[in-house]
Every structure is written in structure tokens, then in C-alpha cells.
Amino acid sequence: MKAVFGVVGGIIGSLILIFAISLGADYFIGLKWYSFIEPKKEDVRREIFLNTRSYNEGKTQDLIRYRLEYLRSDEEGKAILSEAMRHMFAEFDENKLPLELKSFLQKIKYGELQQ
Predict the structure, then answer these.
(1) What does the pLDDT read at residue 115?
(2) What is the DSSP letter of 112?
(3) In terms of CB atoms within 10 Å, which of 59, 64, 69, 91 comes out highest?
């Protein structure tokens, strides 16, 4: 009878040990690996997104619309639109724009037009 309890206790102890090892491995291998790799994956996804045609065409269309509103606005409206464009296009690469829009955006971003 004592031998049966020893065997059952050994089996239960082994199962608990296996479970603890599994949790530890999941944390140290899985979670740590995920925290290392996932930011790199996200950087790649963002870089791909920023180079998509739809993103760049959308930003160009937004800038065309803002430029038209800017040209039609009074001084107060120009100041508001300038501030909005500086924020919306802060990280946008002006080299992806047509020359006229590129020039306009650079003047807005770097303070040559209404602030």
C-alpha cells in the first residue's frame, strides 16, 4: 500500500514539475522572444505601410485639399490650417510629393508661410 502512494505521489509530483517547467519555458522563451521580435515586426509593418501607394496618394490628396482651403482662407483660417498641416504632415516625406505641393508643404512646415 505504501508503494502505491509513493508511485502516485511521484506521478503527481512529476506532473506538477512538468507543468511548472512548461509555464517557465513559455514565459522565458515565448514571452521574452515575443517582446524581442514583435517590435521589429511592427517596425517593418509600419515601413511597408508608409511606402504603400494608397497611403501616399491619400496624403497627397489631403494636402491638395488643405492647400485649396488655405488659399481661400482669411488670416485666422490660414493660421489654423498651417498648424493642422504641420501636425498632420510632420513625419511625411515631402520628396514623395509633386514639386508644387512639396514647396508649399515645406513653406508651411518650416515657417515661411502663415503661422
Answers:
(1) 45
(2) S
(3) 59
Whole-number mean pLDDT of the chain?
A: 87
Round to whole Å and give the CA distance between 91 and 60.
14
Residue 22 reports pLDDT greater than 90: no
With a cut of 80, say whether residue 2 has pLDDT above it.
Answer: no
3-class DSSP state of 75: helix
- Give the type of residue at 21: I
Q: Where are the alpha helices (DSSP H) in the chain?
A: 2-25, 32-50, 53-72, 75-88, 99-109
- So where are the chain's domains? 1-39, 53-109
In three-state secondary structure terms, 114 is coil
User: Smallest Cα–Cα separation from 80: which of 43, 49, 113?
Assistant: 113
